[in-house]
Design brief:
The protein is α/β, with parallel strands linked by helices and 399 residues long. The protein is 40% helix and 14% strand. Helix 4 (75-85) crosses helix 5 (101-107) and helix 10 (258-276) runs parallel beside helix 14 (371-386). It binds ligand T4K.
Length: 399
């Protein structure tokens, strides 16, 4: 009699009693955090450009080597503000393979995101494809550094120069990463980081708009505070995009701990790369180790031609063992609303995005995941692949 494969799909008992998440927050030194929060309470200064926000901005700018860092409540609103401050309107080219916030930040302003395709090797915008989408109505490019791997910055800067476009980077994933030896943060007209709980550096919720353009930074500072230039003096259309002092307290504490976060992420990434190597049809995406990397995402591509289980089957198997792998950025932003209805044909020219969306599986990592956990995850994957026929039958019985 054949032995039952020892994975949750068959045993009904997950390998991990508690879920392993992608994006489990990294928590820095609690004592430092609580000290800062206590100071904040003592000062009774909770928001509106308080001392912790000012300190956090100074630390970010110094760390990245950029002239201005403006803290904001999150990266989505940060991108909306950056777009407005840079006088972008009309059509804006965005990748279709990104988190939905990139496109929403454009659409929410009443402007038009135009989806360009990505390069299947880098997962980042394909510059030639960007250029094909430029029309007389195009005013800007909003490019994501997907997984913290830099977008093709030099090529995009050259396109922006030639066509007189503004260039903003969605750097939500890229804090602590570099491009040709220079930290991400100072490229294009502005770069927008996310410090969301799930990000490499977190401030609960939060973000920062970084720019070397002082005039742009001045405008951004006005815009994030309703356009106020002093008591009772509103000089711009603005919104409320301010970061709170408690977020800055968490951000500063996270920043102090980033060496430890990188070390944990890097050890996990190396463990996945080693343990998945030799598994047919599975490849863990490499980082360029000659650059600064945050190793925040372990991205595994499942080749449907080579792997005996496809990405969706593997994700289902892993979930039954409490390994909550994610299918980012499936199904592609162009297939989400309102874009799916607005541009029903767009998938026809986004073949690489469609291909990536069907094969990428992001695996749990971060300081809450150990290399022992990764060995167990690898066992689950290997066991499932070795019993692919039974796995497929069982999954189809489950519906
Ligand atoms: N641009 C890009 C390229 C982005 O990836 C993002 C955000 C943005 C812009 C926008 O930045 P912000 O406006 O948020 O600053 C998650 C994050 O919520 C989202 O911030 C992130 N990208 C995206 C890639 O991942 P979901 O929809 O997957 O979130 P959710 O609720 O499923 O959480 C992810 C996992 O993390 C879950 O398994 C639970 C775990 N988790 C989450 C939180 C918040 C925890 O364990 N603890 C927590 O506190 O989007």
């Amino acid at each position: 009699m054949q032995e039952t494969p020892s994975i949750g799909l068959f045993t009904g008992k997950p390998a991990f009693p508690q879920p392993l998440h992608v994006g489990r927050p990294n928590i820095g030194n609690r004592d430092q955090l609580l000290k800062r929060i206590n100071g904040m309470l003592d000062r009774r200064w909770l928001s509106n450009n308080g001392p912790l926000v000012q300190e956090f901005e100074k630390e970010i700018a110094g760390y990245l080597g950029v002239r201005n860092a403006v803290c904001v409540c999150n990266a989505t609103v940060g991108m909306e503000v950056a777009i407005r401050a840079a006088n972008i309107s009309g059509e804006v080219i965005v990748p279709a393979y990104t988190f939905v916030a990139t496109a929403h930040a454009v659409q929410w302003q009443g402007f038009t995101p135009i989806f360009a395709d990505v390069d299947g090797t880098t997962h980042n915008l394909d510059p030639a494809n960007v250029e094909r989408h430029i029309t007389p109505r195009t005013t800007g490019i909003l490019a994501t550094h997907v997984w913290g791997r830099p977008a093709p910055i030099a090529e995009l800067e050259s396109i922006a120069r030639r066509h007189k476009l503004r260039l903003i980077f969605d750097a939500a994933h890229a804090f602590g990463c570099s491009y040709r030896g220079r930290m991400i943060g100072g490229f294009g007209d502005a770069e927008v980081f996310s410090f969301h709980a799930t990000k490499f550096l977190n401030s609960f919720e939060g973000g920062a708009i970084c720019t070397n353009d002082d005039a742009l930074a001045k405008k951004i500072r006005l815009m994030i505070n309703f356009g106020f230039a002093g008591f009772d003096n509103v000089v711009e259309l603005g919104t409320n995009a301010k970061m709170t002092e408690s977020s800055a307290a968490m951000g500063l504490t996270s920043l102090e701990g980033i060496a430890g976060i990188v070390a944990a992420n890097r050890a996990n990434y190396t463990a996945y790369r080693q343990q998945f190597s030799g598994i047919r049809g599975l490849a863990v995406m490499p980082y360029d180790e000659s650059e600064h990397c945050n190793y925040q995402y372990v991205v595994c591509e499942v080749d449907p031609e080579l792997s005996v289980l496809n990405r969706d089957e593997l994700v289902r198997v892993l979930h039954l063992d409490n390994v909550l792998a994610r299918k980012y950025f499936w199904p592609g932003v162009h297939r989400m609303e309102p874009y799916r209805t607005l541009y029903p044909e767009s998938h026809l020219h986004l073949s690489e995005t469609e291909r990536m969306a069907a094969r990428v599986m992001v695996l749990p990592t971060g300081t809450a995941v150990s290399t022992d956990d990764i060995a167990r995850i690898t066992d689950i994957v290997r066991t499932a692949l070795a019993s692919a026929g039974a796995v497929k039958r069982r999954l189809s019985e489950m519906g």
